[in-house]
Amino acid sequence: MPRLQDLPIIKPKAMQELGKFLILTGIFLVIFGLVFTFWHQIPLLGKLPGDISINKGGFHFYFPLVSCLIISVVLSLITNVIIRLLK
User: Fold this and answer.
1) CB 54 within 8 A of CB 70
2) What is the pLDDT of residues 21-65, one digit of tens each?
3) Residue 19 has pLDDT above 70, yes or no
4) Helix H segments across the chain?
């Protein structure tokens, strides 16, 4: 059994960083859950010009190219703002 002196000591700075990480992870999960819950109510998302939709016979192919680009830009902006606020 290890002695108390041999156990690693967790520094307060590391605990603060872990706390920030857990809070941000929780916020991200809540936002992600809300987006999935209300996805069908977001206007025009998935129906923008540039979204690819091919219907041939019994085959349907759909790729929301422009919608993916817009979501990517918005998430990049949000991520950059959060990173700048944490510094």
Assistant:
1) no
2) 898 889 889 988 888 888 777 777 778 888 898 999 999 998 889
3) yes
4) 12-37, 65-86
Burial of 67 (0-12, 13-18, 19+ CB in 10 A): middle
Q: Do 48 and 38 lie in a common domain? A: no
The structure tokens listed for 74 are 């918005």
Are 19 and 37 found together in one domain?
A: yes
* Backbone dihedral angles phi then psi of residue 60, each to the nearest 5 degrees: -130, 125
Residues 49 and 82 grouped into a single domain:
yes
Can you tell me which residue has the tokens 């209300």? 38
Q: Are residues 33 and 72 in the same domain?
A: no
0.70 exceeded by the pTM?
Answer: no
Find where tokens 């002196």 sit: 5
Distances in whole angstroms, Cα of residue 44 to Cα of each of 6, 22, 36, 48, 49:
60, 33, 15, 6, 10
> In this structure, are 24 and 34 located in the same domain?
yes
What's residue 4's pLDDT? 63
